[in-house]
Amino acid sequence: MSVIENVSRRRFVQGALAGGVLILAARYAPRLLRAAGEPTSPTAVEPSLWMAIASDGTVTIVAHRSEMGCGSRTALPLVVADELDADWSRVKIDQAIGDPKYGDQDTDGSHSVRSSFDLMRQVGGAGRAMLITAAAAQWNVSAKDCTTEPHFVVHRSSGRKLGYGELAAAAAKLPVPKTEDLKLKSRSEWRYIGKESNSLFDLADMVTGKAIFGMDATMPGMVFASIEHPPVLGQKIKSYDDKAALKVPGVKQTLTIDTVKPPHQFQPLGGVAVIADNTWAAFKGRKSLKIEWDSSPHSVYNSAAYRKTLEATSQKPGKVVRNIGDVDAIFAKGGKIIEAEYYAPHLAHVSMEPPVAVAEYRDGKVLAWAPTQNPQAVQDTIATALGIKKEDVTCHVTLLGGGFGRKSKPDQVAEAAVLSKQLGKPVKVVWTREDDIRFDFFHSVAAMYMKAAIGANGKPTAWLQRSVFPPIDSTFDATATYGDGEMGLGWNNLPFDIPNHRAENGPAEYHVRIGWLRSVANIYHAFAIQSFADELAKSANQDSVEYLLGLIGPPRIVNLEHKADDAEEAKLFPLDTARLRRVVEIAADKSGWGKRSIGKGRGLGIAAHRSFLTYVATVVEVEVDNKGQVHIPGVWTAVDAGTVVSPDNVRNQFEGAAVFGTSLALFGEITATNGVIDQSNFNNYPITRMNRGPRQISVHIVESEAPPAGVGEPGVPPFAPALYNAVFAATGKRVRELPLSKTKLV
Amino acid sequence: MIRLKVNGKESTFDGDPDMPLLWYLRDVAGLTGTKFGCGMSLCGACTVHQNGEAIRSCTTAMKDVGGAEITTIEGIAPMHPVQKAWMEVKVPQCGYCQTGQIMQAIAMLKVNKNPTDQDIDTVMSGNLCRCGTYSRIRAAIHQAAKETA
User: Which residues are bridge partners to A152 per DSSP?
Assistant: First the structure.
């Protein structure tokens, strides 16, 4: 239950909202908690959404989520503005600092719109109702006879109008209507939600260079720091010599940061910081440092050997995370059995803006500006690092030059705070691209083992899948070897119609920091499942699309009762195979599947995957030239993300997902030798350039009135398997490891 | 003392002559529209114009730009047809690389007023976008070319 409050006359309203005359704040118990019977009294949860109308009519809406390219900062206020019936050109967005009063601010998991949609509509709707009541009182007419047009209340019969700014003071004296009494707009009345005309709030600033990213944040009197981190996770400084570094013009001094102890969480890695009066001097000084490092247990990390360990584990029974029927009994009967192993390497995020932050420690308090997906994690991390209270950490959020999950982990912000405390002045920490790639929280390496028994009609009668990877949990618990969180990411919710099915997870130890990367474990899980599905189709000599539809089976709600944690989510967002079938059919149709001849050396591949509650199917067309190089003439993606706020932005996200998918399918691979990461910049960790990306990307959004689901991530998982299946169609070569550059195709 | 013109303004620099132009622009001149992405001319986020031609400011030392006319994104009068096309096509996602993309595109359209897809690919493949906005960049360049034709 949400409770909207009129806080217009509260003294605690500060910052951009302080000029507001009518100010509304919404207390919000997240829907899922609410349904689970968690505390819902008004005192149990703090206000999480704020909106103010000033006497000049300016509407200020707080964006409590970060903007990293997915459009959250625009989409959330747009929904409020729609229900308020505000003129979007008179709306200002106030980016929230990190504060638990805003509820969950972690911009990840593709859930910004999904988690806040209803509340935002209610806040806007409450404001509109109060403005109408205020106008009706002034005119001495019934509120029922009044309506709104953007930024005005209108009396229907007389045509009289009053602006929102003129009405704000009177509306501020009114009680807030009860949520259940609010009459929200019908879908047909929406002015902004679902409209093609929506564009990013910061668009003009982005194309003129005025947009302020973390890299652009400054504080008066700040110095610049570049940090030489331990090459191997956990190494301590044995000794270091900074004489040459200190001779570099602009270098002021060096400082050390203690090496992180496990669990490393988001704490600074440690190392030697070069402090200078500009970024370049700090970089240059660092090159002259001579550091001798101690040993680390992670020096044993060699990717080739580690892969063998993962693959050996994947051959052994693991922890069962879902079980239907009895796969062992079916396998014991013999008959046609197909097995396959898949492998996916570590990946690095490489957002175009490397990690960066500026922070000042003064009088026991920290002020930080950072491109962070999670300003509350900044508060927690700095509080732990410096032994202060999290309330004493203020984190302002800049625009993010990409995030992809890396910037939910604020180690570099804590570095700035730790150094500022030592120096007594503000510090800007700038990571080089080499730092970014070598010291990432890596997307996990993974090995998957698949086994199926095939029935008379070519369809599996039993399907076993086992996934092994060092888990993200190892970041928070150094002893963790199983990935409980990763199981819900495309592994314990296989939407196939197979009478006997078991999904398992095997253990693996971490040697580098493991973290979330856009769509996370869905990447390797969808790769294994959707590749294996295609292998079975081809083995049965059946069309890949028809076979995939057969695996998905008839329209139904998939029973996910074994996922007790997600029971409430499953009620609101049931896994509906009709929606999955529909995206498969649309993607196939749009690509001309089976209807056109595409020529020698070319092939089409399909894959479908539901993640972040969104159904996606992708067809990729490849052309493999006589040198074995893969070109991508076309990509057709069908998306059912429920209700969509900004369709053009959704298309942009899925176009981008195809390019992101191309990077990881064709080139992406991070490896380690004796614990040291082998890659360092875009020369040896390439990402897709324009000339290697898909020539055409066509995104079809399924019209839906279902609740909004995720859009930032779900485009990524089906891309790689669709491309690999296309490569098989083009060449007859079945490749079972990412990336494709490791396999010679001719 | 190095003398140069930045966005039409006479400027001098007497710091480390090895300092890349990028860091002079950002840390000394306060022009932060030019971005740092790789430091090795691999990504193009730092693209500016030297005497009208696109260069990578992250690997161009201050000692090599004496007497040069440098134009950054701040020196482009908005809305340039390329910027306008970028807005109409709604190219950006995070926006970080886009100033470099725009500077590269403006320089290209000066010498090639009607580029083909192939021309665009050849010139623009030096500019990385991790969000993956390439198909929109291509469309925006075609649109800008049409408008300026």
Answer: A149, A163
